[in-house]
Amino acid sequence: MLDGIKEAGEAAGIEVVSSVTDDVDEGVTAMEGADAVVLCGATTSTEGKDRSSLLVDQDDFLSEILDAALIPSVVVTLTPGASVLTNWVDKADSVLNLFLSGEETGHSVADVLFGSVNPSGKLPVTFPLSEEYAVAPCRFTVKECVYDEGVLVGYRGLQDKDVGFR
After folding, report:
1. 162 domain-assigned
2. Pairing of strands 73-78, 94-98
């Protein structure tokens, strides 16, 4: 993704400085002198295995960097196939979430970041405010998983609840 953003930045005359670690101090240093910050986070997800939580894997990092940011901030998240909790969303100026993206992800993100396209898609899922609003994953220590919510899953299960995004 970074290569596509850097290529588009160069073409637009924008210098893209990057830090590709989850080290907060290094991230803060990379922001020095910048006009804006783009933070990236993702969820690790695979077929047939529930995630341990609905948080983005870099949740603490994103929150700490956003606390330190004194410049406009955009958070880009890659969350294939599932909704996430965005505890830091009120600290960000903008959020761009991608679900299943492909080899042109960096160029696509750059098109949105640099204003070439309008990210006007509709969300295919509802983002809960709390894990207690979601159907709990079945733990492997249990022999049989009981799901008794019927059709009250996804947006139906969240209709009367405050949510992050619909």
Report:
1. no
2. parallel
Element (H, E) at 163: strand 163-165
pLDDT in tens, 36-73: 999 999 988 777 777 778 889 999 999 999 999 999 99
DSSP symbols for 5-38 = HHHHHHHTT-------SS-HHHHHHHHTT-S-EE
Q: What is the pTM of this model?
A: 0.85
CATH label of the domain that carries residue 46: 3.40.50.1700
Domain count, the chain: 1
Does a structural domain hold residue 91? yes
CB-based contacts of 151, cutoff 8 Å, min separation 6:
none
Give dist(CA 55, CA 116) in Å, integer.
30
Report strand pairing: 163-165 vs 127-128.
Answer: antiparallel
